[in-house]
Each structure stands twice: as structure tokens, then as C-alpha cells.
Design goal:
By secondary structure, this protein is mainly beta. It has 3 domains: 132 residues, no CATH class; 86 residues, Immunoglobulin-like; 117 residues, Sandwich (Immunoglobulin-like). It is 4% helix and 53% strand. It is built from 2 helices and 26 strands. Strands 11, 12, 15, 16, 17, 18 and 19 form a 7-stranded antiparallel sheet that branches. Strands 20, 21, 22, 23, 24, 25 and 26 form a 7-stranded mixed sheet that branches. A hairpin with a 2-residue loop joins strand 25 and strand 26. The longest helix is centred in the N-terminal third of the chain and has 10 residues. The chain is elongated, with a radius of gyration of 27 Å.
Length: 358
């Protein structure tokens, strides 16, 4: 039966870590653990394994899935401890069978390392070399967000962090500094109303797991400023009562009747396109609450495109509760920057007549 023992309990701080693995000479693994708090690395630990026989890595969600319960004995609370030595471990037994005579009479070690993003299992001939990285060679990057419309709160979201990073407010701007080690980081802004936007000052954009991110690269000298040629021209814009294959010359009424209209469709078209771009349309209820937002991408970094690209974003009028009838705000963003602010009126036959003079 497996016996899990907390490994070097007094040496490794108990906390929640982000894990990363790389391989060095003779294909031996090096696992780095980082503990972040509000954009700063609090603990940074390096584990070097030599004479490694086998390693397997599971994404955190898969490791806790029931389909692995017969082969994985992970403890669910990673805040209690991050590294365990497993005596008489099943994984080590499997390795012995595969390697065969070479391991007869040889002591081998099995370790389990649990982080927020990955679970690692390692079978090796020796204990790991653990280095507490006091000198982390951190580089600080500064982030500033501002927009014309009033925002009470803006936070930073990083893909590798579980919690947002707080940004302090200075008049109309939100600012923060974040410490990094060398590497590539994916981030975006989380506005106080729930809207997520990429950084309008950063043209380096990526699509990862069907999410859109701004990309920040840090090297030994700090932030890497990449020269990226990127542009797009808004050619046409309108909000219509149905899906349009072309944008009509005549502007339609922006009053929508929930008893007759099924959709409000925001149509955008762009040309003179170079680089990857993200368009976002956000729909706000009369009380200012964000109802929903949707994103779409167009263009690429490989080649420019002079052809017109048309995007459609729609609001399902039939799902709107009559308590939310009234004057809705529609904000359109290109690469995180607001390019249009519009309004529509949603009403019903039973609703009192709305004064549309404005």
C-alpha cells in the first residue's frame, strides 16, 4: 500500500504554486515552482532531478478527474503541502517492471508535486536538489489602462494566475507594476463591469484555448518591445433588425420591439487589414449593468489583406426580460480600444411609450 510522506516540510514553504517543467542534460527534469501574490513572486523554488527513470505530467483538472482515481493518489488540498515522497508507490513499481534487471536491489524514489496548473510524478535514483531562488532576477513591467467612459475598477488577468492583479486608480487612469522572471506571459484587462479586453497599447495578440490575450515577453533585460505592423480601417458600422449580408446605405430605426424583433445585430466591416485583430461588442442594460459581450478575430500576422471583412454581433431580443426594457448602450472595441458608443431602445407592446427625443 502506498505511504505518502510530506517531503522536507520545514524547507519548502506551504503555499499555492504555479509549476513549469523543462529538461536539461541527459533529459533530466527541472521543475520550477512560483508563488504569486498581486503580481509579485513571493516564493520561487527550483527542483532538479538527476538519474531520472520516468516522469509523467497531468493537467490539474485531469489529475483530479475520477477516471484517474485508480492510478493516482493525489491529495486534494495543495495548500497543505506541495511535495510528497511516496513509499511503496504504484508508479515506482510499474517503472521497476519496465526497466527490469537494472533496478534489482537498487533504491528508487517516487515524488509527487502538486501545483495549480500541473501535477508531476517522478521516479528517480536520487533525491532532488532543491534551490530556494532568493535572487529571482525579476523584471518589473508597468501597466496603465484608461478609457473615456467612467470606470470605478480595473484589474489585470494573467493566464498563469488564479486571481486578478489589483490596479490602483489615479484620476481616470488605472495603474500597477508587476514583477516577472524571463518568459512569455498572456494577460488582459478585467473591467469592473465584467468586460474583458486585451491591451490596446500592445499589438502582440494571441488566441489560446479559444480566449484572446495580449502577449508580454520578458528577457534578461526586461520587457521585449516587439515591432509588429498592425492596422485595420473601420469601413462600415450599423445596428440592424436582422442579419445582413451587406450594410444598407439607409440607417435603420434603433427601436426594437420584443414582440416583433428577434435580434439586434451590430455589423462591422473592415478593410486595409494587417495583423491579427480582436473586435468586441458589449451590450449594457438601461441601469448600466453589462448584459453580455462577445468577441471575434480577423486578420493574421502572415500577410496583409485589402479585402473587406464583415463581422456580426447579435443580441437575442426574445430573451430580454421586460424589466430591462428601455435605453440600452452598445459599445464596440477594436483591439481593446473603444471605437463606437451607440444606443438602442428595446420595448414591448405593453410598455408605456418611450420618449426617444435625444
Amino acid at each position: 500500500m502506498e505511504n505518502w510522506k510530506i517531503y522536507r516540510e520545514d524547507e519548502i514553504p506551504k503555499d499555492v504554486y504555479i509549476g513549469d517543467i523543462s529538461y536539461v542534460e541527459d533529459n533530466n527534469p527541472v521543475i520550477k515552482l512560483e508563488n504569486w501574490h498581486n503580481g509579485r513572486i513571493i516564493n520561487y523554488i527550483k527542483l532538479e532531478f538527476k538519474n531520472m527513470y520516468s516522469v509523467r505530467v497531468f493537467e490539474e483538472g485531469m489529475a483530479l478527474n475520477k477516471i484517474f482515481e485508480d492510478i493516482m493518489k493525489f491529495k486534494p488540498d495543495r495548500r497543505k503541502n506541495v511535495i510528497y515522497e511516496v513509499e511503496d508507490g504504484d508508479y515506482a513499481k510499474e517503472v521497476r517492471k519496465i526497466v527490469g534487471r537494472k533496478l534489482i536491489g537498487t533504491k528508487i524514489y517516487q515524488y509527487v508535486i502538486m501545483t495549480e496548473n500541473f501535477f508531476f510524478e517522478i521516479v528517480t535514483a536520487s533525491e532532488p536538489v532543491i534551490t530556494m531562488m532568493e535572487e529571482k532576477a525579476e523584471k518589473e513591467a508597468y501597466f496603465t489602462y484608461w478609457e473615456n467612459y467612467r470606470l470605478n475598477k480595473v484589474d489585470l488577468i494573467f493566464k498563469h494566475l488564479e486571481e486578478p492583479v489589483y490596479m490602483s486608480k489615479d484620476e481616470s487612469r488605472h495603474e500597477t507594476g508587476v514583477e516577472f522572471t524571463e518568459g512569455e506571459y498572456h494577460y488582459k484587462y478585467l473591467l469592473g463591469d465584467g468586460l474583458e479586453l486585451i491591451d490596446k497599447e500592445n499589438k502582440n495578440i494571441c488566441i489560446d484555448d479559444e480566449n484572446y490575450w495580449s502577449v508580454l515577453t520578458i528577457d534578461k533585460d526586461g520587457v521585449v518591445d516587439k515591432e509588429i505592423e498592425s492596422y485595420a480601417t473601420l469601413l462600415e458600422y450599423g445596428i440592424f433588425h436582422k442579419m445582413m449580408e451587406v450594410v444598407p446605405d439607409k440607417e435603420e430605426s434603433k427601436i426594437f420591439n420584443a414582440d416583433k424583433d428577434k435580434q439586434a445585430v451590430c455589423v462591422l466591416s473592415f478593410n486595409e487589414i494587417k495583423g491579427l485583430h480582436i473586435a468586441t461588442v458589449a451590450w449594457y442594460k438601461p441601469d448600466g449593468e453589462l448584459y453580455r459581450f462577445t468577441e471575434n478575430d480577423f486578420g493574421s500576422y502572415e500577410e496583409s489583406d485589402d479585402d473587406k471583412v464583415m463581422l456580426r454581433f447579435w443580441l437575442d431580443i426574445t430573451e430580454i426580460d421586460e424589466t430591462d426594457f428601455g435605453n440600452w448602450t452598445v459599445r464596440t472595441f477594436l483591439d481593446g480600444e473603444m471605437i463606437k458608443e451607440d444606443s438602442i431602445i428595446i420595448s414591448g407592446n405593453s410598455m408605456n411609450k418611450i420618449d426617444t427625443k435625444c
